[in-house]
Amino acid sequence: MSSLTIMSTLIRRELRTAARTRSYYLLGLAVGGILLGLTFGGGGAATGYIPTVVDLLLPLEVLVPIVAVAIGYRAVPSDLDRGEVAMLDTYAVSPSAYVGAVYLGRAAVLSAIVGVALLVVGLVVAAVAAPDTGVFATHSGVDSPILFGRFLVVTLLFGNALVAVVLVASIAVTSARTAIVAAIGAVLVVVVGGEAAILLGVLDGVFNEATLRLALGFVPNSAYRGLVFETVVGVLSAGESGYASPLISMIGLVLWTVASLGAAAGLLRWRIG
Amino acid sequence: MTDADEATSRGEPTDNDGDTSVVTTTGLTKEYGGRPIFEGVDLDIASGAMTAVIGPNGIGKTTLLKTLLGHVDPTAGTVTYTGPNVDRPMGYLPQEPAFRPQFTVNETVDFYASLVDAAVDTERLLGEVNLSEARNRRVSALSGGMRRLLAVAQAVLGDPPVVCCDEPASGLDPSMARRVFESLAGRAADGMAVVVASHTLSLVETYADHVVILESGGVAAAGSPTDLIERYDAADLWDVYDTVIDPTAGDDPATSDGAARRGDDGPTERESVASDATADTGGQS
Protein backbone atom coordinates (compact mmCIF):
# COMPACT_ATOMS: atom_id res chain seq x y z
CA MET A 1 0.00 0.00 0.00
CA SER A 2 1.44 3.37 -1.00
CA SER A 3 2.24 6.08 1.51
CA LEU A 4 -0.01 8.43 -0.43
CA THR A 5 -3.00 6.11 -0.06
CA ILE A 6 -2.35 5.71 3.66
CA MET A 7 -1.92 9.44 4.12
CA SER A 8 -5.14 10.27 2.28
CA THR A 9 -7.01 7.64 4.32
CA LEU A 10 -5.72 9.16 7.56
CA ILE A 11 -6.50 12.71 6.45
CA ARG A 12 -10.05 11.72 5.47
CA ARG A 13 -10.53 10.25 8.92
CA GLU A 14 -9.24 13.41 10.58
CA LEU A 15 -11.56 15.60 8.53
CA ARG A 16 -14.55 13.39 9.24
CA THR A 17 -13.69 13.39 12.93
CA ALA A 18 -13.53 17.17 12.89
CA ALA A 19 -16.78 17.48 10.96
CA ARG A 20 -18.52 15.34 13.60
CA THR A 21 -17.16 17.16 16.63
CA ARG A 22 -19.87 19.51 17.88
CA SER A 23 -17.57 21.50 20.12
CA TYR A 24 -15.76 22.79 17.06
CA TYR A 25 -18.97 24.33 15.77
CA LEU A 26 -19.52 26.00 19.13
CA LEU A 27 -15.92 27.22 19.10
CA GLY A 28 -16.47 28.61 15.59
CA LEU A 29 -19.58 30.48 16.71
CA ALA A 30 -17.74 31.89 19.71
CA VAL A 31 -14.78 33.04 17.63
CA GLY A 32 -17.08 34.53 15.00
CA GLY A 33 -19.09 36.33 17.67
CA ILE A 34 -15.97 37.75 19.32
CA LEU A 35 -14.49 38.98 16.04
CA LEU A 36 -17.75 40.53 14.90
CA GLY A 37 -18.16 42.18 18.29
CA LEU A 38 -14.66 43.62 18.08
CA THR A 39 -15.24 44.75 14.51
CA PHE A 40 -18.35 46.69 15.39
CA GLY A 41 -17.07 47.77 18.77
CA GLY A 42 -13.82 49.15 17.36
CA GLY A 43 -15.60 51.06 14.65
CA GLY A 44 -13.38 49.59 11.96
CA ALA A 45 -16.26 48.09 10.06
CA ALA A 46 -17.59 51.53 9.18
CA THR A 47 -14.26 52.87 7.93
CA GLY A 48 -12.67 50.05 5.97
CA TYR A 49 -10.60 46.88 5.89
CA ILE A 50 -7.34 48.27 7.22
CA PRO A 51 -8.90 49.91 10.28
CA THR A 52 -10.62 46.58 10.92
CA VAL A 53 -7.30 44.74 10.61
CA VAL A 54 -5.76 47.14 13.12
CA ASP A 55 -8.70 46.57 15.46
CA LEU A 56 -8.42 42.79 15.21
CA LEU A 57 -4.66 42.28 15.17
CA LEU A 58 -3.98 42.29 18.89
CA PRO A 59 -7.13 40.31 19.84
CA LEU A 60 -6.21 37.72 17.22
CA GLU A 61 -2.73 37.37 18.70
CA VAL A 62 -4.50 36.14 21.83
CA LEU A 63 -7.49 34.39 20.27
CA VAL A 64 -5.64 32.34 17.65
CA PRO A 65 -3.31 30.66 20.18
CA ILE A 66 -6.36 29.82 22.32
CA VAL A 67 -8.08 28.22 19.33
CA ALA A 68 -4.89 26.34 18.44
CA VAL A 69 -4.68 24.92 21.96
CA ALA A 70 -8.38 24.08 22.06
CA ILE A 71 -8.36 22.05 18.87
CA GLY A 72 -4.89 20.56 19.13
CA TYR A 73 -4.08 19.53 22.67
CA ARG A 74 -6.08 16.29 22.75
CA ALA A 75 -5.55 15.17 19.18
CA VAL A 76 -2.65 12.77 19.64
CA PRO A 77 -2.87 12.08 23.41
CA SER A 78 -6.45 10.82 23.00
CA ASP A 79 -5.38 8.37 20.33
CA LEU A 80 -2.43 7.33 22.50
CA ASP A 81 -4.64 6.80 25.55
CA ARG A 82 -7.14 4.81 23.49
CA GLY A 83 -4.38 2.57 22.17
CA GLU A 84 -5.23 3.63 18.62
CA VAL A 85 -1.69 4.78 17.87
CA ALA A 86 -0.36 1.38 18.99
CA MET A 87 -2.95 -0.35 16.81
CA LEU A 88 -2.17 1.88 13.84
CA ASP A 89 1.51 1.09 14.30
CA THR A 90 0.77 -2.51 13.35
CA TYR A 91 -0.38 -1.27 9.96
CA ALA A 92 2.04 0.39 7.58
CA VAL A 93 1.34 3.75 9.20
CA SER A 94 4.50 5.62 10.12
CA PRO A 95 4.55 8.15 12.98
CA SER A 96 5.32 10.84 10.40
CA ALA A 97 2.25 9.98 8.32
CA TYR A 98 0.07 9.86 11.41
CA VAL A 99 1.35 13.18 12.80
CA GLY A 100 1.10 14.77 9.36
CA ALA A 101 -2.51 13.65 8.95
CA VAL A 102 -3.50 14.76 12.44
CA TYR A 103 -1.85 18.11 11.84
CA LEU A 104 -3.58 18.65 8.50
CA GLY A 105 -6.92 17.71 10.04
CA ARG A 106 -6.51 20.13 12.94
CA ALA A 107 -5.07 22.84 10.68
CA ALA A 108 -8.17 22.48 8.54
CA VAL A 109 -10.32 22.98 11.63
CA LEU A 110 -8.43 26.10 12.66
CA SER A 111 -8.55 27.39 9.11
CA ALA A 112 -12.30 26.81 8.99
CA ILE A 113 -12.99 28.41 12.36
CA VAL A 114 -10.75 31.46 12.03
CA GLY A 115 -11.04 31.69 8.25
CA VAL A 116 -14.83 31.67 8.16
CA ALA A 117 -15.03 34.14 11.03
CA LEU A 118 -12.67 36.55 9.25
CA LEU A 119 -14.51 36.02 5.98
CA VAL A 120 -17.75 37.05 7.67
CA VAL A 121 -15.99 40.09 9.13
CA GLY A 122 -14.72 40.95 5.64
CA LEU A 123 -18.22 40.68 4.20
CA VAL A 124 -19.57 42.89 6.97
CA VAL A 125 -16.90 45.49 6.20
CA ALA A 126 -17.73 45.29 2.51
CA ALA A 127 -21.39 45.83 3.32
CA VAL A 128 -21.09 48.75 5.74
CA ALA A 129 -17.82 50.55 4.99
CA ALA A 130 -17.20 53.44 2.61
CA PRO A 131 -17.58 52.70 -1.14
CA ASP A 132 -13.84 52.82 -1.95
CA THR A 133 -13.25 49.65 0.07
CA GLY A 134 -14.73 47.78 -2.88
CA VAL A 135 -11.66 48.46 -4.98
CA PHE A 136 -9.97 45.19 -5.87
CA ALA A 137 -6.98 46.57 -7.75
CA THR A 138 -4.20 46.87 -5.21
CA HIS A 139 -1.70 49.66 -5.11
CA SER A 140 -0.24 51.69 -2.36
CA GLY A 141 -2.66 53.93 -0.56
CA VAL A 142 -5.90 52.13 -1.35
CA ASP A 143 -7.83 50.10 1.18
CA SER A 144 -8.91 46.88 -0.47
CA PRO A 145 -10.49 43.47 0.12
CA ILE A 146 -7.26 42.01 -1.24
CA LEU A 147 -5.41 43.42 1.75
CA PHE A 148 -7.96 41.87 4.06
CA GLY A 149 -7.50 38.58 2.19
CA ARG A 150 -3.76 38.81 2.86
CA PHE A 151 -4.52 39.41 6.52
CA LEU A 152 -6.68 36.28 6.56
CA VAL A 153 -3.97 34.16 4.94
CA VAL A 154 -1.25 35.46 7.25
CA THR A 155 -3.48 34.83 10.28
CA LEU A 156 -4.03 31.22 9.18
CA LEU A 157 -0.29 30.77 8.66
CA PHE A 158 0.30 31.99 12.22
CA GLY A 159 -2.48 29.83 13.66
CA ASN A 160 -1.37 26.68 11.89
CA ALA A 161 2.21 27.17 13.09
CA LEU A 162 0.83 27.24 16.62
CA VAL A 163 -1.20 24.07 16.00
CA ALA A 164 2.08 22.32 15.22
CA VAL A 165 3.63 23.68 18.43
CA VAL A 166 0.61 22.46 20.41
CA LEU A 167 0.87 18.98 18.85
CA VAL A 168 4.50 18.50 19.79
CA ALA A 169 3.89 19.74 23.33
CA SER A 170 0.91 17.43 23.80
CA ILE A 171 2.88 14.37 22.65
CA ALA A 172 5.68 15.16 25.08
CA VAL A 173 3.47 14.43 28.08
CA THR A 174 2.03 11.12 29.19
CA SER A 175 -1.73 11.66 29.14
CA ALA A 176 -4.53 13.71 27.64
CA ARG A 177 -5.09 15.34 31.02
CA THR A 178 -1.61 16.77 31.25
CA ALA A 179 -1.58 17.58 27.54
CA ILE A 180 -3.60 20.76 28.00
CA VAL A 181 -1.11 22.04 30.57
CA ALA A 182 1.77 21.22 28.24
CA ALA A 183 0.03 22.81 25.26
CA ILE A 184 -0.79 26.01 27.11
CA GLY A 185 2.70 26.10 28.58
CA ALA A 186 4.33 25.63 25.19
CA VAL A 187 2.23 28.34 23.57
CA LEU A 188 2.93 30.72 26.44
CA VAL A 189 6.65 30.04 26.21
CA VAL A 190 6.68 30.50 22.44
CA VAL A 191 4.30 33.46 22.27
CA VAL A 192 4.97 35.38 25.48
CA GLY A 193 8.41 34.03 26.29
CA GLY A 194 9.78 34.76 22.83
CA GLU A 195 8.66 38.36 22.88
CA ALA A 196 9.78 38.85 26.46
CA ALA A 197 13.23 37.52 25.54
CA ILE A 198 13.44 39.96 22.65
CA LEU A 199 12.34 42.81 24.88
CA LEU A 200 14.98 41.94 27.44
CA GLY A 201 17.52 41.66 24.66
CA VAL A 202 16.61 45.11 23.41
CA LEU A 203 16.83 46.57 26.91
CA ASP A 204 20.25 44.95 27.39
CA GLY A 205 21.42 46.21 24.03
CA VAL A 206 21.96 42.71 22.68
CA PHE A 207 20.35 43.47 19.33
CA ASN A 208 21.26 45.89 16.62
CA GLU A 209 18.67 46.78 13.99
CA ALA A 210 19.52 43.89 11.70
CA THR A 211 19.61 41.18 14.37
CA LEU A 212 16.43 42.54 15.94
CA ARG A 213 14.57 42.20 12.64
CA LEU A 214 15.92 38.68 12.37
CA ALA A 215 14.91 37.78 15.91
CA LEU A 216 11.43 39.23 15.44
CA GLY A 217 10.95 37.00 12.43
CA PHE A 218 11.59 33.87 14.46
CA VAL A 219 9.09 34.52 17.25
CA PRO A 220 5.66 33.48 15.95
CA ASN A 221 3.69 36.45 17.28
CA SER A 222 6.28 38.96 16.16
CA ALA A 223 6.53 37.28 12.78
CA TYR A 224 2.74 37.43 12.42
CA ARG A 225 2.61 41.05 13.49
CA GLY A 226 5.48 41.87 11.17
CA LEU A 227 3.79 40.19 8.23
CA VAL A 228 0.56 42.08 8.90
CA PHE A 229 2.42 45.39 9.21
CA GLU A 230 4.51 44.84 6.10
CA THR A 231 2.03 43.20 3.76
CA VAL A 232 -1.31 44.63 4.88
CA VAL A 233 -1.19 47.78 7.01
CA GLY A 234 2.10 49.11 5.69
CA VAL A 235 0.87 49.05 2.10
CA LEU A 236 -1.11 52.19 2.80
CA SER A 237 1.96 54.19 3.75
CA ALA A 238 5.02 54.97 1.68
CA GLY A 239 8.26 53.10 2.41
CA GLU A 240 8.96 50.19 4.71
CA SER A 241 7.64 50.09 8.25
CA GLY A 242 10.99 48.72 9.36
CA TYR A 243 9.32 46.29 11.73
CA ALA A 244 10.37 42.95 10.31
CA SER A 245 11.35 41.39 7.05
CA PRO A 246 8.30 39.67 5.48
CA LEU A 247 10.56 36.99 4.05
CA ILE A 248 12.20 36.23 7.38
CA SER A 249 8.85 36.31 9.13
CA MET A 250 7.41 33.89 6.59
CA ILE A 251 10.43 31.60 6.93
CA GLY A 252 10.11 31.85 10.71
CA LEU A 253 6.49 30.68 10.74
CA VAL A 254 7.19 27.88 8.25
CA LEU A 255 10.19 26.78 10.31
CA TRP A 256 8.12 26.67 13.49
CA THR A 257 5.57 24.52 11.67
CA VAL A 258 8.01 22.11 10.04
CA ALA A 259 10.34 21.82 13.05
CA SER A 260 7.41 21.22 15.41
CA LEU A 261 5.95 18.53 13.16
CA GLY A 262 9.35 16.87 12.82
CA ALA A 263 9.78 16.91 16.59
CA ALA A 264 6.23 15.60 17.04
CA ALA A 265 6.87 12.65 14.71
CA GLY A 266 10.17 11.91 16.47
CA LEU A 267 8.58 12.07 19.90
CA LEU A 268 5.72 9.82 18.81
CA ARG A 269 8.17 7.30 17.37
CA TRP A 270 9.94 7.31 20.74
CA ARG A 271 6.65 7.03 22.67
CA ILE A 272 5.44 3.95 20.80
CA GLY A 273 8.84 2.30 20.66
CA MET B 1 1.93 -32.97 22.85
CA THR B 2 4.63 -34.81 24.67
CA ASP B 3 7.79 -32.85 24.05
CA ALA B 4 10.68 -33.10 26.46
CA ASP B 5 10.84 -30.79 29.43
CA GLU B 6 13.90 -29.16 27.97
CA ALA B 7 11.91 -28.00 24.99
CA THR B 8 8.89 -26.84 26.92
CA SER B 9 10.93 -24.93 29.45
CA ARG B 10 12.27 -22.92 26.55
CA GLY B 11 8.73 -21.88 25.82
CA GLU B 12 8.59 -23.77 22.57
CA PRO B 13 5.21 -24.25 20.99
CA THR B 14 3.15 -27.34 20.91
CA ASP B 15 3.85 -29.77 18.18
CA ASN B 16 0.92 -28.59 16.17
CA ASP B 17 0.85 -30.33 12.81
CA GLY B 18 4.43 -29.42 12.12
CA ASP B 19 3.84 -25.70 12.53
CA THR B 20 6.87 -23.48 12.23
CA SER B 21 8.16 -20.74 14.45
CA VAL B 22 7.24 -17.30 13.21
CA VAL B 23 8.57 -15.19 16.08
CA THR B 24 11.56 -16.16 18.20
CA THR B 25 12.79 -14.40 21.29
CA THR B 26 16.26 -15.04 22.61
CA GLY B 27 17.37 -13.99 26.07
CA LEU B 28 14.65 -11.35 26.14
CA THR B 29 15.08 -9.11 29.14
CA LYS B 30 13.24 -5.98 30.15
CA GLU B 31 14.06 -3.73 33.05
CA TYR B 32 12.44 -0.51 34.18
CA GLY B 33 14.64 1.69 36.31
CA GLY B 34 16.94 -1.21 37.10
CA ARG B 35 14.01 -3.40 38.21
CA PRO B 36 13.77 -6.51 36.05
CA ILE B 37 10.34 -7.20 34.60
CA PHE B 38 11.45 -10.42 32.95
CA GLU B 39 14.84 -11.89 32.22
CA GLY B 40 16.21 -14.27 29.64
CA VAL B 41 12.88 -15.20 28.07
CA ASP B 42 13.31 -17.60 25.14
CA LEU B 43 10.14 -18.18 23.17
CA ASP B 44 9.26 -19.70 19.86
CA ILE B 45 5.87 -18.49 18.71
CA ALA B 46 4.49 -20.95 16.20
CA SER B 47 2.21 -20.24 13.31
CA GLY B 48 -0.98 -22.26 13.38
CA ALA B 49 -1.14 -22.26 17.17
CA MET B 50 -2.49 -20.23 20.03
CA THR B 51 0.14 -19.37 22.60
CA ALA B 52 -1.20 -18.11 25.93
CA VAL B 53 0.90 -16.07 28.32
CA ILE B 54 -0.44 -16.27 31.86
CA GLY B 55 0.77 -14.97 35.17
CA PRO B 56 -0.11 -12.61 38.00
CA ASN B 57 -0.94 -8.97 37.37
CA GLY B 58 2.10 -6.77 36.93
CA ILE B 59 4.36 -9.67 36.05
CA GLY B 60 5.10 -8.35 32.57
CA LYS B 61 2.63 -10.04 30.23
CA THR B 62 1.66 -6.79 28.55
CA THR B 63 5.28 -5.68 28.38
CA LEU B 64 6.20 -9.02 26.82
CA LEU B 65 3.50 -8.62 24.17
CA LYS B 66 4.56 -5.04 23.47
CA THR B 67 8.14 -6.22 23.16
CA LEU B 68 7.09 -8.84 20.61
CA LEU B 69 5.30 -6.10 18.70
CA GLY B 70 8.31 -3.81 18.81
CA HIS B 71 6.44 -1.21 20.87
CA VAL B 72 8.82 -1.69 23.78
CA ASP B 73 12.56 -2.02 23.31
CA PRO B 74 14.06 -4.89 25.29
CA THR B 75 16.86 -4.14 27.71
CA ALA B 76 18.65 -7.21 26.35
CA GLY B 77 17.92 -10.03 23.98
CA THR B 78 16.28 -10.14 20.59
CA VAL B 79 12.91 -10.64 18.97
CA THR B 80 13.13 -12.15 15.51
CA TYR B 81 10.23 -12.25 13.11
CA THR B 82 10.66 -14.95 10.53
CA GLY B 83 7.21 -14.92 8.98
CA PRO B 84 6.19 -13.85 5.51
CA ASN B 85 7.10 -10.39 4.29
CA VAL B 86 3.78 -8.58 4.41
CA ASP B 87 2.61 -5.01 5.05
CA ARG B 88 1.13 -5.99 8.38
CA PRO B 89 3.11 -8.79 10.01
CA MET B 90 1.46 -8.40 13.41
CA GLY B 91 -1.99 -7.45 14.62
CA TYR B 92 -2.57 -6.07 18.09
CA LEU B 93 -5.40 -5.97 20.56
CA PRO B 94 -4.43 -3.59 23.38
CA GLN B 95 -5.49 -4.15 26.96
CA GLU B 96 -7.84 -1.14 26.99
CA PRO B 97 -8.83 -0.72 23.37
CA ALA B 98 -10.93 2.20 22.22
CA PHE B 99 -11.71 3.94 18.98
CA ARG B 100 -12.78 7.35 17.81
CA PRO B 101 -16.25 7.82 19.31
CA GLN B 102 -17.55 9.81 16.33
CA PHE B 103 -17.50 6.79 14.00
CA THR B 104 -19.78 3.81 13.63
CA VAL B 105 -18.62 0.22 13.96
CA ASN B 106 -18.77 -0.19 10.19
CA GLU B 107 -16.82 3.00 9.53
CA THR B 108 -14.18 2.00 12.06
CA VAL B 109 -13.65 -1.40 10.46
CA ASP B 110 -13.70 0.17 7.00
CA PHE B 111 -11.03 2.65 8.08
CA TYR B 112 -8.68 -0.05 9.31
CA ALA B 113 -9.55 -2.25 6.31
CA SER B 114 -8.47 0.55 4.01
CA LEU B 115 -5.00 0.37 5.56
CA VAL B 116 -4.35 -3.20 4.45
CA ASP B 117 -3.78 -4.52 0.97
CA ALA B 118 -5.95 -7.61 1.37
CA ALA B 119 -9.65 -7.46 0.56
CA VAL B 120 -11.63 -7.53 3.78
CA ASP B 121 -15.08 -9.05 4.11
CA THR B 122 -16.42 -6.61 6.68
CA GLU B 123 -19.75 -8.44 6.98
CA ARG B 124 -18.08 -11.74 7.80
CA LEU B 125 -15.62 -10.12 10.18
CA LEU B 126 -18.34 -8.33 12.14
CA GLY B 127 -20.40 -11.51 12.19
CA GLU B 128 -17.42 -13.40 13.58
CA VAL B 129 -17.25 -11.08 16.59
CA ASN B 130 -21.02 -10.81 16.89
CA LEU B 131 -21.20 -7.13 16.00
CA SER B 132 -23.31 -7.38 12.84
CA GLU B 133 -26.38 -5.90 14.48
CA ALA B 134 -24.35 -3.06 15.94
CA ARG B 135 -22.64 -2.16 12.68
CA ASN B 136 -24.36 1.21 12.39
CA ARG B 137 -23.96 2.10 16.05
CA ARG B 138 -21.44 4.75 16.97
CA VAL B 139 -18.45 3.65 19.00
CA SER B 140 -19.51 6.09 21.72
CA ALA B 141 -22.70 4.04 22.13
CA LEU B 142 -20.94 0.68 22.50
CA SER B 143 -20.42 -1.10 25.79
CA GLY B 144 -16.87 -1.79 26.93
CA GLY B 145 -17.26 -5.42 25.88
CA MET B 146 -18.45 -4.47 22.43
CA ARG B 147 -15.53 -2.11 21.98
CA ARG B 148 -13.25 -5.03 22.84
CA LEU B 149 -15.00 -7.15 20.21
CA LEU B 150 -14.45 -4.38 17.70
CA ALA B 151 -10.79 -4.34 18.71
CA VAL B 152 -10.62 -8.11 18.16
CA ALA B 153 -11.95 -7.58 14.63
CA GLN B 154 -9.34 -4.87 14.10
CA ALA B 155 -6.55 -7.10 15.41
CA VAL B 156 -7.16 -9.92 12.93
CA LEU B 157 -7.98 -7.60 10.04
CA GLY B 158 -6.06 -8.47 6.91
CA ASP B 159 -4.99 -11.81 8.39
CA PRO B 160 -1.58 -10.82 9.77
CA PRO B 161 0.72 -13.82 10.33
CA VAL B 162 0.90 -12.97 14.04
CA VAL B 163 -1.71 -11.45 16.29
CA CYS B 164 -1.04 -10.39 19.89
CA CYS B 165 -4.10 -10.03 22.09
CA ASP B 166 -3.84 -8.50 25.54
CA GLU B 167 -6.71 -9.82 27.67
CA PRO B 168 -9.07 -10.55 24.77
CA ALA B 169 -11.80 -11.82 27.12
CA SER B 170 -11.64 -9.02 29.65
CA GLY B 171 -15.01 -7.35 30.18
CA LEU B 172 -16.89 -9.89 28.09
CA ASP B 173 -19.68 -12.12 29.32
CA PRO B 174 -18.67 -15.81 29.53
CA SER B 175 -20.34 -16.86 26.29
CA MET B 176 -18.84 -13.97 24.35
CA ALA B 177 -15.44 -14.57 25.93
CA ARG B 178 -15.65 -18.16 24.76
CA ARG B 179 -16.67 -17.00 21.32
CA VAL B 180 -13.67 -14.69 21.09
CA PHE B 181 -11.32 -17.50 22.09
CA GLU B 182 -13.04 -19.83 19.63
CA SER B 183 -12.60 -17.26 16.91
CA LEU B 184 -8.93 -16.77 17.74
CA ALA B 185 -8.42 -20.54 17.89
CA GLY B 186 -10.05 -20.74 14.48
CA ARG B 187 -7.62 -18.16 13.17
CA ALA B 188 -4.78 -20.21 14.62
CA ALA B 189 -6.14 -23.31 12.95
CA ASP B 190 -6.03 -21.37 9.67
CA GLY B 191 -2.31 -20.78 10.17
CA MET B 192 -2.11 -17.57 12.20
CA ALA B 193 0.19 -17.37 15.20
CA VAL B 194 -2.06 -16.15 18.00
CA VAL B 195 -0.53 -14.88 21.23
CA VAL B 196 -2.89 -14.06 24.07
CA ALA B 197 -2.16 -12.68 27.52
CA SER B 198 -5.06 -13.78 29.66
CA HIS B 199 -6.29 -14.43 33.18
CA THR B 200 -9.17 -16.58 31.94
CA LEU B 201 -7.48 -19.88 32.63
CA SER B 202 -10.44 -22.10 31.78
CA LEU B 203 -10.52 -20.68 28.26
CA VAL B 204 -6.75 -20.85 27.99
CA GLU B 205 -6.88 -24.52 29.00
CA THR B 206 -9.58 -25.21 26.44
CA TYR B 207 -8.28 -23.30 23.46
CA ALA B 208 -4.54 -22.64 23.82
CA ASP B 209 -2.08 -25.00 22.17
CA HIS B 210 0.76 -23.73 24.25
CA VAL B 211 0.91 -22.01 27.63
CA VAL B 212 3.73 -19.87 28.96
CA ILE B 213 3.50 -19.17 32.68
CA LEU B 214 5.35 -16.00 33.61
CA GLU B 215 6.65 -15.48 37.09
CA SER B 216 8.94 -12.85 38.56
CA GLY B 217 12.10 -13.16 36.58
CA GLY B 218 10.81 -14.98 33.53
CA VAL B 219 9.20 -18.16 32.30
CA ALA B 220 8.26 -20.42 35.20
CA ALA B 221 6.83 -23.20 33.04
CA ALA B 222 5.73 -23.75 29.48
CA GLY B 223 4.03 -26.43 27.47
CA SER B 224 0.67 -27.53 26.21
CA PRO B 225 -2.13 -27.39 28.81
CA THR B 226 -2.33 -31.20 28.95
CA ASP B 227 1.42 -31.52 29.22
CA LEU B 228 1.56 -29.02 32.08
CA ILE B 229 -1.30 -30.71 33.88
CA GLU B 230 0.43 -34.08 33.55
CA ARG B 231 3.81 -32.70 34.49
CA TYR B 232 2.55 -31.13 37.71
CA ASP B 233 0.07 -33.92 38.42
CA ALA B 234 -2.65 -31.28 38.55
CA ALA B 235 -6.40 -31.41 38.07
CA ASP B 236 -6.46 -28.48 35.70
CA LEU B 237 -4.53 -25.40 34.64
CA TRP B 238 -5.60 -23.58 37.80
CA ASP B 239 -3.80 -26.23 39.83
CA VAL B 240 -0.72 -25.88 37.68
CA TYR B 241 -0.86 -22.12 38.12
CA ASP B 242 -1.19 -22.46 41.89
CA THR B 243 1.74 -24.84 42.01
CA VAL B 244 4.02 -22.86 39.77
CA ILE B 245 3.32 -19.30 40.80
CA ASP B 246 4.91 -17.81 43.86
CA PRO B 247 1.96 -16.43 45.85
CA THR B 248 3.81 -13.18 46.45
CA ALA B 249 4.58 -12.63 42.77
CA GLY B 250 3.03 -9.77 40.82
CA ASP B 251 1.04 -6.91 42.25
CA ASP B 252 -2.36 -8.53 42.60
CA PRO B 253 -3.11 -9.64 46.17
CA ALA B 254 -5.83 -11.98 44.90
CA THR B 255 -3.29 -14.12 43.11
CA SER B 256 -1.75 -15.10 46.43
CA ASP B 257 -4.82 -17.10 47.26
CA GLY B 258 -5.49 -19.84 44.83
CA ALA B 259 -8.68 -21.05 46.49
CA ALA B 260 -10.16 -17.61 46.47
CA ARG B 261 -9.22 -17.27 42.82
CA ARG B 262 -10.97 -20.45 41.92
CA GLY B 263 -13.97 -19.52 43.95
CA ASP B 264 -14.18 -16.18 42.21
CA ASP B 265 -13.66 -17.20 38.64
CA GLY B 266 -12.88 -20.79 37.95
CA PRO B 267 -16.12 -22.66 38.49
CA THR B 268 -18.17 -19.89 36.98
CA GLU B 269 -16.07 -19.95 33.86
CA ARG B 270 -16.09 -23.72 33.71
CA GLU B 271 -19.81 -23.89 34.19
CA SER B 272 -20.40 -21.27 31.56
CA VAL B 273 -18.15 -23.03 29.10
CA ALA B 274 -19.62 -26.43 29.81
CA SER B 275 -23.22 -25.41 29.73
CA ASP B 276 -23.11 -22.61 27.25
CA ALA B 277 -26.19 -23.42 25.27
CA THR B 278 -27.55 -19.92 25.29
CA ALA B 279 -27.41 -17.63 22.33
CA ASP B 280 -24.40 -15.35 22.16
CA THR B 281 -25.55 -11.80 22.48
CA GLY B 282 -22.16 -10.22 22.47
CA GLY B 283 -23.29 -7.88 25.17
CA GLN B 284 -25.54 -6.12 22.75
CA SER B 285 -28.42 -5.79 25.12
UniProtKB/TrEMBL annotation, chain A:
UniProt keywords, alphabetically: Membrane, Transmembrane, Transmembrane helix
Record-annotated membrane-spanning stretches: 24-50, 56-76, 97-130, 150-173, 180-203, 247-268
Lineage top rank: taxon: Archaea
Name of this protein: ABC transporter permease
Lineage: Archaea, Methanobacteriati, Methanobacteriota, Stenosarchaea group, Halobacteria
TrEMBL record, chain B:
Pfam annotation, one family: ABC_tran
Sequence ranges assigned to domain ABC transporter in this UniProt record: 23-241
MF annotations from Gene Ontology: ATP binding; ATP hydrolysis activity
Annotated region described as Disordered, given as residue ranges: 1-27, 247-285
Keyword Transport: yes
Keywords associated with the record: ATP-binding, Nucleotide-binding, Transport
Ranges annotated as biased composition (Basic and acidic residues): 259-273
Family named by the database record: Belongs to the ABC transporter superfamily.
Name of the protein this chain belongs to: ABC transporter ATP-binding protein
